[in-house]
């Protein structure tokens, strides 16, 4: 039996696995069917005007990516907030929390298990959507390239021009930059799930948890502006109140603008590996801080 | 060396803030009790008397405002004290998507049990609570009595030395209720300490060695059941095969004694529950 009464990865794994099963039986994977229909529909969509405009081929691919990644972002954020906000109150309501906490289970293990279970389900869902997106994007890219190259050859372009054009189209296809963008969607969802966990650790209402988490999500998109205000605004016209407010916003709220590389990947821009590496580390930091704060609120919570 | 109790509650006070009032509501007021290893203790009292609050404080789900709770000498707020506890809450729901076997497996793993040891324990407990045939059914399809029994099994999964049962037969039909009561008696024979709260006084009387009566947060009486319920100065004879002549002679003898007085004579009655159970038993044979 476990002898560690503070933190056990095995115990966290058991709770995470169970949470994953619990959530997956809530029929969340139906969303994947809707996603598949959406992305297949988007892949048949062509920009108005056929292939006359010079960048319309890339636009078609961008449209597929934009639709798919928009749906992935939406699903991951909604799911991260709703699932995390629901889990704790449901366990309290059903009194299953009593039976778990009356076993030798430290509260930090319970919280981390729940969070990891939610994240595992989001990761799997995003991975499945990513496989679908990558597959459709691959076939769509190849089909566009073959038709565009045939048009280019007929128009008498040189081989260098054709190769250049092909590389531009391929940049909009299934690239590693696209995978980095998908990873950023997951990382952003992980941060918002840990925020929802923190709020639900002291909240007594699911609705309150959802409302506050959504609010934090929106505020997080303006944290960078608050940071700039704090760091660069000087002079007499800069009131102390404004400074404190911006400092507070920067300290409390995550900076979701850093996750804008999702847009870069949709646009087919290059995303350096070290950027996604640093973003992953930042996400671990955010999740760690919010989980520790959640534990502080939850460890003495009475039921 | 100080005596080690299975449960020791010392001067427990629990107050809850009252909305819009400065004064806090005192749910439990200076409650103290001790349970020795192997005893069955029943805490009885009306709704809102502080039974569940006392129980939750013992389980570490509530922090005492004042006082302390110990389980086998360990403070109940410490996680390690819970290795010795099994808890069955009132009307437990558990996870409906799990089967009976999966439920026990989940709780066993939480306690660090693995492999063959866990599999054997799960099978043993399913047998004990008579749910072997229903082990693969999801809990969503279990009756209330079955849920209580699987709840009791999960409470016992890690071989706890103390079982805490909150209204273990609430909402269960007489047959299910009898099964649970028999289980408690079986556990008592195995030397497991049981602390239970119940409204059903007859059942408490059937299984408990000691009882405590809690009212408005205060322990108004506690002690050994035999001592508490025996009526001082009165004796009872239950006889069979007694003729009318013999009965007359006994009554005369009592009448001749200046101090003795016959209070009641007649045939003892069974309870409605016993009648129901025996009739159902006959019908199933």
From TrEMBL, chain A:
Gene Ontology molecular function, alphabetical: ABC-type transporter activity
GO CC terms, sorted: plasma membrane
N-terminal signal peptide: none
Transmembrane segments: 28-47, 68-88, 115-139, 180-199, 205-224, 244-262, 274-298
UniProt keyword annotations, A-Z: Membrane, Transmembrane, Transmembrane helix
Database matches in Pfam families: ABC2_membrane_2 (PF12679)
PANTHER family cross-referenced by the UniProt entry: ABC TRANSPORTER PERMEASE (PTHR43471), SLL1107 PROTEIN (PTHR43471:SF10)
Name of this protein: ABC transporter permease subunit
Organism: Persicirhabdus sediminis
Taxon lineage: Bacteria, Pseudomonadati, Verrucomicrobiota, Verrucomicrobiia, Verrucomicrobiales
Automatic annotation (TrEMBL), chain B:
SMART domains reported for this sequence: AAA
Keyword tags: ATP-binding, Nucleotide-binding, Transport
InterPro entries registered for this protein in UniProt: AAA+_ATPase, ABC_transporter-like_ATP-bd, ABC_transporter-like_CS, P-loop_NTPase
Recorded GO MF terms: ATP binding; ATP hydrolysis activity
Protein known as: ABC transporter ATP-binding protein
Family: Belongs to the ABC transporter superfamily.
One Pfam family matching this protein: ABC_tran
Membrane-spanning segments: none
Domain of life: Bacteria
The organism of origin for this protein: Persicirhabdus sediminis
ABC transporter domain sequence ranges: 7-241
């Amino acid at each position: 039996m476990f002898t560690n009464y503070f933190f056990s990865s095995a115990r966290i794994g058991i709770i995470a696995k169970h949470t994953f099963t619990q959530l997956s039986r809530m029929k969340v994977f139906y969303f994947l069917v809707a996603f598949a229909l959406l992305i297949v529909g988007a892949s048949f969509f062509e920009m108005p005007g056929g292939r006359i405009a010079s960048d319309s081929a890339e636009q078609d691919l961008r449209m597929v990516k934009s639709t798919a990644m928009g749906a992935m972002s939406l699903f991951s954020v909604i799911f991260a907030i709703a699932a995390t906000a629901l889990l704790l109150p449901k366990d309290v309501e059903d009194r299953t929390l009593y039976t778990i906490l009356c076993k030798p289970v430290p509260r930090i293990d319970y919280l981390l298990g729940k969070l990891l279970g939610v994240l595992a389900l989001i990761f799997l869902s995003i991975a499945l959507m990513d496989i679908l997106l990558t597959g459709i994007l691959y076939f769509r890219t190849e089909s566009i390239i073959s038709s565009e190259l045939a048009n280019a050859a007929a128009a008498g372009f040189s081989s260098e021009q054709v190769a250049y054009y092909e590389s531009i189209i391929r940049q909009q296809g299934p690239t590693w930059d696209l995978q980095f963008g998908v990873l950023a969607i997951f990382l952003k969802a992980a941060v918002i799930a840990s925020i929802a966990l923190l709020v639900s650790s002291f909240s007594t209402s699911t609705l309150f948890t959802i409302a506050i988490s959504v609010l934090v999500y929106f505020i997080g998109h303006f944290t960078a502006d608050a940071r700039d205000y704090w760091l660069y605004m000087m002079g007499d016209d800069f009131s102390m109140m404004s400074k404190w407010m911006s400092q507070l916003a920067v300290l409390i709220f995550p900076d979701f603008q850093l996750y804008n590389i999702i847009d870069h990947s949709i646009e087919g821009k290059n995303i350096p590996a070290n950027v996604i590496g640093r973003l992953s580390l930042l996400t671990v930091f955010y999740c760690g801080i919010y989980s520790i704060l959640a534990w502080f609120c939850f460890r003495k919570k009475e039921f | 060396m100080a005596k080690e109790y299975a449960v020791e509650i010392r001067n427990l006070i629990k107050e809850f803030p009252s909305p819009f009032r400065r004064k806090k509501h005192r749910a439990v007021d200076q409650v103290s009790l001790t349970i020795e290893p192997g005893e069955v203790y029943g805490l009885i009292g009306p709704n809102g008397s502080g039974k569940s609050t006392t129980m939750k404080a013992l389980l570490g789900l509530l922090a005492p405002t004042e006082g302390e709770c110990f389980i086998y000498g360990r403070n109940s707020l410490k996680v390690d004290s819970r290795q010795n506890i099994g808890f069955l809450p009132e009307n437990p729901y558990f996870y409906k998507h799990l089967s009976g076997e999966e439920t026990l497996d989940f709780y066993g793993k939480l306690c660090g049990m693995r492999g063959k040891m866990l599999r054997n324990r799960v099978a043993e407990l399913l047998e004990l609570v008579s749910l072997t045939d229903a082990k693969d059914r999801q809990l969503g399809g279990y009756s209330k009595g079955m849920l209580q029994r699987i709840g009791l099994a999960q409470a016992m999964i890690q071989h706890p030395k103390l079982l805490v049962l909150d209204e273990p037969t609430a909402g269960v039909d007489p047959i299910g209720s009898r099964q649970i009561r028999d289980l408690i008696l079986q556990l008592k024979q195995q030397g497991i300490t049981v602390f239970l709260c119940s409204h059903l006084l007859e059942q408490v009387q059937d299984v408990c060695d000691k009882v405590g009566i809690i009212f408005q947060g205060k322990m108004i009486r506690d002690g050994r059941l035999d001592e508490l319920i025996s009526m001082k100065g009165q004796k009872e004879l239950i006889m069979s095969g007694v003729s009318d002549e013999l009965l007359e002679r006994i009554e005369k003898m009592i009448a001749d004694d200046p101090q003795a007085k016959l209070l009641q004579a007649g045939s003892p009655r069974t309870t409605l529950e016993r009648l129901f159970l025996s009739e159902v038993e006959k019908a199933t044979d």
